[in-house]
Amino acid sequence: MDSLIKDKDNPVAFSSSLTQFFTTIAGLSAFSLRFFKDVFLPPYEFGEVKKHMDELGIKTMPIVTVTGFIIGLVIAMQSQPVMKRFGAESFLPGMVALSVVRELGPVITALIFAGRVSSGIGAELGSMRVTEQIDAMEVSAINPYKYLVVTRILACTLILPILTLYVNFLAILGGYLAVALSESSSFQLYINAVFKSLEFSDLIPGILKTFIFGFIVGAVGAFKGYTAENGTVGVGKASTSSVVMASLLILLTDTVLVKITVWIWPG
Amino acid sequence: MVEVKNLSKSFGDHVVLNNISFNVDEGENFVVFGRSGTGKSVLLKCMVGLLEPDNGDILINNKSVVHIPIKEMNELRKRTGFLFQGSALYDSMTVRENLEFPLTRNFNFSAKEREAKVKDVLEKVGLSKAIDKKPAELSGGMKKRVGLARTIITEPELILYDEPTTGLDPITSKEISQLIVELQKDLNITAIVVTHDLICAKIVADTSIVLRAGKICYEGEIKGLEKADDPFLKNFFSSELVDAEAGEI
Ligand SMILES: Nc1ncnc2c1ncn2[C@@H]1O[C@H](COP(=O)(O)OP(=O)(O)OP(=O)(O)O)[C@@H](O)[C@H]1O
Ligand SMILES: [Mg+2]
User: Fold this and answer.
1) pLDDT for position B242
2) In chain B, where are the structural domains located?
């Protein structure tokens, strides 16, 4: 609290934290660009990528399962009375499916993924940095960026779309549960209604953007960890600040992407 | 083999190394003494490109290693061993994986050859039983020895040891010192050994330097050190404290 007040009264501190913000963004950009250079260099470390994907999958599966189901359930329960009032109940399955597939599924999965994963990557690489394990790799003539960072970013980029598809599927199931709880409606009818309202062009942008979100989560976590300083304090900082930064970047990117999607697919 | 010329390194306005020069001959064990914080680790890190010196040059095999492209640096690193002060074992890997890591990536050994090498170095450091343990399950001294095993497994031409015997009991400490001498004799390895451990230094050293306040304050044989008149060196190498003032860095 004290520091907040101090910052407000002190324009120098504010401008220096602004500079710091832009330095971080510049650093992150340079760090992420290196991915595209190093990802094509052999050795390809497929084993590592697969190992990280397995770990990420196992780590996020429980929370993502619960969340996915509840998203669908809650949206359906919320909207049901309103839709009933307007006599639009038959649109409920379509509405649940559309909002989940186009926006809520990808974004909420990405945010949960960020909270669970980028902090983990930040802490892991941060502690490798401060205990000189990254230096040790470098001294053994092994490219630590390639071995540690590229494999993790790749794993995040590839696993998030899969998780999102899974969440979408569960959310639609959750929606059915809400419908079934209040009235007797057959599963067959519900699913038919879902598929009738969903078009291919609804699914594609939602899934495409999760590749970008996955990349952001991996890159931010790895960046914070890889550049950690100041011993164990730095590790903690890398871990927490990567969640904040990854979540913010996901939301900002999403805003831009939604604008672009609407522009490309106006329908 | 190694020539350090007018090397300087500062962090901000903290001058750590101030215009240091020395030579290490091929096949020599060269010991570096100095109080905690005088820049011994910094000196070693400059030699493998982990830190960039502000001024001066370092030549290894008559080739400068300062400001060279990463490719050339990596060729050099493959032939150089570095033992970190804190061991720096990869804690997500077992001891075996730690040792195999540099082998699989930089050399073309068959699985059988790798296995034999791993067993061989672990025996040398007396840790054959720990082969499937994770670093977290090892004591500090055991970690140090695994770190040493990982350093020598690639049979480098030049090894930089950062305090190889710190934290080891006197017996293990002597064994490790003897191992360093054996490596020098058998494989003609050149070594720079940073240490505070006089017993270790006496076993391994051919020549030594003492760093003080960013400068070299003694250069020559260990024997000469024990007889030195300088109060700082006296404090460093004898069991009594002569003059506390002289001990300041
Ligand atoms: N990355 C760094 N940033 C800032 N200062 C540093 C850095 N690395 C080392 N120093 C400073 O350089 C000085 C020398 O450090 P160094 O680790 O080389 O000491 P040392 O001689 O190895 O000591 P010890 O025997 O305790 O290991 C210290 O005062 C330290 O504060
Ligand atoms: Mg040191």
Assistant:
1) 66
2) 2-248
Q: Which domain holds residue A87?
A: 39-264
B42-92: pLDDT as tens digits = 999 999 999 999 999 999 999 999 989 999 999 999 999 999 999 999 999
**A237: in domain:** yes
B49: helix, strand or coil: coil
Residue owning tokens 């899969």: A162
Distance A136 CA to ligand 1 centre (A): 17
Does the structural domain B2-248 have CATH classification 3.40.1390.30? no
For residue A191, give the nearest of A92, A108, A87 by alpha carbon. Answer: A92
Residue B245: count of CB within 10 angstroms of its CB:
9
User: Best of B9, B13, B42 to mutate for ligand 1, by most ligand atoms within 8 A of CB?
Assistant: B42
Check A139 against B50: CB less than 8 A apart: yes
ipTM score here? 0.91
Among all bound ligands, the one having the nearest atom to the CA of B162 is 2
Q: pLDDT per residue over A147-160, tens digit each?
A: 999 999 999 999 99
